[in-house]
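Worked problem 6 (solution included).
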Amino acid sequence: MSIDPDLFRSILGRFACGITVVTVRDAHGHDHGMTISAFSSVSLEPPLVLFCVANDATMATVMSTATSFGVSILSDTEEPQSRRFSGKTDDRFADLQYTRGSLGNALLSDALASIDCRVTARYPAGDHVIVVGEVESGGARDARPLLYYRGGYAQLER
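Solution. The predicted structure is:
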């Protein structure tokens, strides 16, 4: 017997996690992006990361053929960007400051850290797809992270 879905969501909501925006450029040169909290490092050698995207998300269709993606790890000043990339917006990149990573993906300018990755694998997993990428380049700055905890945004107090 499986766990009750509401209880499962409640349990996992107690795991504080960072917030990222994952971006990709499609074959026509259009930028796409979405807020992702299901992001993790996988390996140091080679440098691998993964993220999970719901099968019914628009981003899942784009990621099914993408060869690379960018990840911007959000700072505590970037809640508006997190909301922008998680909501229904026609042009999520309008009036947004970003640079291009080494593989051409958009990376948010004020991010705490960012990486550009080459897709190495995709794995179906329930109602999501796990996308694994090898990190090609990246950078970081000193700031506080934006966190997600129990269904809301939080900041780290140190």
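Discussion: The chain is about 15% helix and 45% strand.
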